[in-house]
Amino acid sequence: MKTQWKPLFAGLVVLATLLTGCSSVPAQTTGSQTPAVSASGGPLSFKDMGGRDTELAAPANLAFGASPPATVMIYTFGADKLAGWNTKVTEQVSRYVTPEAAALPVLGRANGKDGTFNAETLLGHGVNVILDAGEVSTEYAKIDDDLEQQSGIQVVQLSTEFQKLPESYRMMGRIFGDDARGEQLAGYTERINAELARGSAAITDEQRVSVYYATGDAGLSTAGGKNIHAQVIDVIGARNVYGTAEKASGRVDVNAEQLLTWDPDWIIAMPGKGGTDLASSDAFKPLRAVSQGNVLISPQAPLGLDGRPALGEPGDRRCLGGGDHLPGRLQLRPPEKEVREFYSLFYHHELTDSELNEILAGAGHRN
Q1: Which of 8, 149, 247, 292 has the fewest CB within 10 Å, making it most exposed?
Q2: Whole-angstrom distance, CA of residue 13 vs CA of residue 15
Q3: Mean pLDDT per segment of 10 residues, for the chain of length 367 residues?
Q4: Contact status, residue 127 vs residue 105, Cβ threshold 8 Å
Q5: Whole-angstrom distance, CA of residue 148 vs CA of residue 314
Q6: Is the dihedral of CA 270, 102, 111, 154 positive or negative?
Q7: Do residues 242 and 261 lie in contact, with contact meaning Cβ atoms separated by under 8 Å?
Q8: CA distances from 199 to 42, 76, 138 (A)
Q9: Within 13 Å, how many C-alpha atoms sit on residue 297's CB side?
Q10: Which helix (H) or strand (E) holds 155?
């Protein structure tokens, strides 16, 4: 990649990864539709994005996220719609979320191996809908049916597939009785989706860069194409060195020999739990991407892009790559303006100059 493109490339990494903050896996929708609600804000009857019949007595006031991706979607829609967090809010997160949101209680999580929520606690906090965001499939429909029966609270499935985010936000607009807010967020994501699609479509095979997605404490876990964690690599027209993933979610372990064989053009690294600087490790030092300074550390403030708050866990930040000509063809506004607008629109936070510089630097190069 030509040197003059590197700063813009880093800025686009920030923008694309922020946009997919709630992004997860390809959805297998089974007939979703826009919720129907009376003009007076009465009962809603609709099929969620998993095709499940859904009934709400009225637009929801407070929602619980079954897992972190849904919790982040609720917060981005409206900080006042979030009943509580899945895990403790750290100082890093509290810097960027509203003071009222930072003070919300920890309510646990309903999905995943560390499920810790209590249905009675949710009801006690006024929760009248549970949102589950991420993979939309028959398997997850069954999980959400069980959750609904266990909690006695309506569960609504939302897709976090890159191209399905606008539909998810519009559905949230109806769920919360605020179509204007849903359309505002949907319109923003549609614009970025379109610009990324135009840019990726213009890339030839010769211009396509190879990208290694590095996660885990030592960076030796990754995800292939079509996978929840590396979705953006596919969307923007880069080539995932691992190839195509066998599963829509989950990660796989690799070794130093495989890395050297792949020798990617770029590395997108998720911050490890131990804060390891991957570029200085024995496994990564021999790689061409490291010697050329093409290592991007995905920013984690305030919310990890798998939907987890930045709580010291490896986030599932998506990456943006795509050849020498991609930045010019994307025709995005300057990254600083895009990032400022994103934080204001989605995170309800006006960035200071120092915060903006910190975020952009976090997506910069590590030698």
Answers
A1: 149
A2: 6
A3: 38 46 37 48 88 93 92 94 92 89 92 72 92 86 91 92 89 96 94 79 82 88 80 78 79 93 88 63 92 75 44 27 34 68 91 85 48
A4: no
A5: 30
A6: negative
A7: no
A8: 43, 26, 33
A9: 18
A10: strand 155-159
Q: How far apart are CA 135 and CA 345, in angstroms?
A: 25
Instruction: Reduce the DSSP state of residue 211 to 3 states and report it.
Output: strand
CA–CA gap between residue 282 and residue 153 (Å, rounded): 50
158: its two tokens: 């939302």
Closest CA to 303 of 81, 137, 97, 129: 97
Start-end of H helices in 28-103: 68-77, 91-94, 99-102
CA–CA dist 123, 110 (Å, integer): 14
Q: Which two tokens stand for residue 322?
A: 């795509």
Q: Return the sign of the alpha-carbon dihedral for residues 12, 16, 17, 18.
A: positive
pLDDT of residue 153: 94
Question: What whole-number distance in Å separates Cα of residue 356 and Cα of residue 96?
Answer: 11
pLDDT at 303 (0 to 100): 56
Tokens 């549609």, located at residue: 190
pLDDT at 249: 67
